[in-house]
Specification:
This protein folds into two domains: 238 residues, Aspartate Aminotransferase, domain 2, CATH 3.40.640.10; 124 residues, Alpha-Beta Complex (Aspartate Aminotransferase, domain 1). It is 41% helix and 14% strand. The protein has twelve helices and 15 strands. It binds pyridoxal-5'-phosphate.
Length: 374
């Protein structure tokens, strides 16, 4: 039996007709940039996330970049964030000439540790923004993070690229911080047919600023108050996303059902001492962009699974403070030990909504076969 890590074709088969019809409508209109599909999707995503405004941009990476620019982050400023995330989180900070201030993570949720964040803010001057990352589909512990942001007047930018629809204490990702950044990269829970992203906010001034920054810092065409970028979501992607958004809740339910099934199967397999299942605190609802187990002998398990036809992936094998491009920041091996240990032990299993119970049993049997073989 083959179990791919992700099967986008299975999803496409179900929505193909609707999507192709919307693509045709856009092509027939010949209106490709900042038209009614983008503004329609912006309203729909804002409502979905429980935020007042949403601004479509070219990617999740650009969402982060523009949010940092809108927050006024400048070269030489520091931005506190997690070292255990996709590169874009820190890359967008560095692109502005700002300095990532990496704060170690909680070992159970893999999200930024608010206690360590508080200590880092005390020690460092010039921290001009905080980017908590909602990794794998569940929110960071936002209550203490927002408290720290408010008391030190530092804007909080949620990296919600992996977590559209996730909830924390009843609020959805993207509605908790000053701004929220979404990605529509194909492997995200709401993926388009290329690159796309969005910034959510409740602040009308930030929304205006973001709209200006995405069109070269211009409010009135050909007049530029500041230097922005060219970063827009296009009509074709927006039209595709509007079709897919209608299914997002049912897909999230499918992921949650599959996660529960893995939880049960893995507990029953009783692989003691070498494997732990994802931890979701009571205040969180995860949308499981990834189902990530933590294991001993991870790389050997991964090879074993691959031989059994089971796809898996390591998100992420090298903590960002150890990346070559950040050598100049002065971190060393051992600087952020929780993140470094996670990078050695995490493994993402197939979790997409169309996965069948038989496929999940095969995944768990294969894992059990590796650890429990006589
Ligand atoms: C995917 C992702 C991004 C970047 O999104 P792109 O659309 O690929 O630019 C940023 N942060 C995190 C945590 C992500 O997973």
């Amino acid at each position: 039996m083959k179990v791919q890590l992700l099967d986008l074709a299975a999803q496409y088969r179900k929505i193909r007709k609707e999507v192709l019809s919307e693509i045709k409508t856009v092509c027939d209109s010949q209106h490709y940039v900042l038209g009614k599909n983008v503004s329609g999707l912006e309203s729909e995503i804002a409502a979905y996330c429980g935020a007042k405004f949403a601004v479509g941009v070219a990617s999740g990476t650009d969402a982060l970049l523009l949010a940092l620019m809108a927050a006024g982050v400048k070269a030489g400023d520091k931005v506190a964030t997690s070292p255990f995330t996709f590169f874009a989180t820190a890359g967008s900070i560095a692109r502005l000439g700002a300095i990532p201030l990496f704060v170690d993570i909680d070992p159970d949720t893999y999200n930024i540790d608010p206690v360590k964040l508080e200590a880092a803010l005390k020690k460092n001057k010039r921290v001009k923004a905080i980017i908590p990352v909602h990794l794998y589909g569940q929110c960071a512990d936002m209550a203490p993070i927002m408290k720290l942001g408010r008391s030190s007047r530092i804007p909080v930018i949620e990296d919600a690229a992996q977590s559209i629809g996730a909830a924390y204490k009843g609020k959805r990702a993207g509605s908790i911080g000053d701004m929220g950044c979404l990605s529509f990269y194909p492997t995200k829970n709401l993926g388009c047919f290329g690159d796309g992203g969005m910034v959510t906010t409740n602040d009308p001034r930030l929304a205006e600023r973001l709209k200006m920054l995405r069109v070269h810092g211009s409010r009135v065409r050909y007049y530029h108050d500041e230097v922005g970028v060219n970063s827009r979501l296009d009509e074709l992607q927006a039209a595709i996303l509007r079709v897919k958004l209608k299914y997002l809740d049912s897909w999230a339910s499918g992921r949650q059902r599959n996660a529960k099934r893995y939880d049960t199967l893995l507990r029953k397999a009783a692989i003691k001492g070498v494997l732990s299942i994802p931890f979701i605190p009571a205040e969180n609802v995860s949308v499981y962009n990834q189902y990530v187990i933590r294991v001993k002998k991870r790389d050997e398990l991964r090879a074993h699974l691959s031989a059994a036809g089971v796809g898996s992936e390591v998100y992420y094998p090298l903590s960002l403070h150890m990346q070559k491009c950040f050598k100049g920041l002065g971190y060393r091996r051992g600087s952020l030990p929780v993140s470094e240990a996670a990078a050695r032990e995490v493994l993402a299993l197939p979790i997409y909504p169309e996965l069948t119970p038989a496929q999940q049993r095969h995944v768990v049997d294969s894992i059990a076969g590796f650890y429990l073989k006589p």
